[in-house]
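PROTEIN DESIGN WORKSHEET
SECTION A - STRUCTURE
LENGTH: 129
TOKENS:
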């Protein structure tokens, strides 16, 4: 009977030692996992803050881009209006010069330098007679 008790006691101590080692291993693993969880929570907080900042900056960039796009469209519209006016001017000048090319100039009313000279009181060549 003593042999059986010694064996049972030895087996119980061995199971207790194995269980204690298992508990120690599991506690160690649990501590590592808790530290990892805490680290991940910190990462989540940092990432949430960064996402908020990025979203804010994205909204600002979108507003600036929209304003620039509007300004660019106004510039394009103004340039198009200028181009249209320039085309109209070219068309008017083209028509004018095509019409003027067909016209003749009446030079019968043209005056020369003799017409502009003051009257000397005698006819041309008369002073030398």
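SECTION B - SEQUENCE
RESIDUE ASSIGNMENT:
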């Amino acid at each position: 009977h003593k042999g059986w008790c010694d064996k049972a006691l030895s087996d119980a101590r061995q199971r207790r030692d194995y269980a204690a080692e298992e508990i120690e291993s599991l506690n160690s693993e649990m501590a590592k996992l808790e530290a990892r969880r805490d680290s991940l929570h910190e990462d989540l907080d940092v990432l949430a803050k960064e996402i908020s900042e990025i979203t804010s900056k994205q909204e600002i960039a979108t507003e600036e881009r929209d304003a620039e796009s509007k300004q660019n469209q106004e510039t394009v519209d103004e340039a198009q209006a200028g181009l249209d006016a320039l085309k109209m001017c070219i068309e008017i000048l083209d028509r004018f010069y095509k019409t003027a090319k067909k016209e003749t100039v009446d030079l019968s009313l043209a005056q020369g330098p003799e017409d502009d000279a003051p009257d000397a009181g005698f006819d041309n060549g008369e002073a030398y007679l």
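SECTION C - NOTES
The longest helix spans residues 2-102.
The mean pLDDT is 88.
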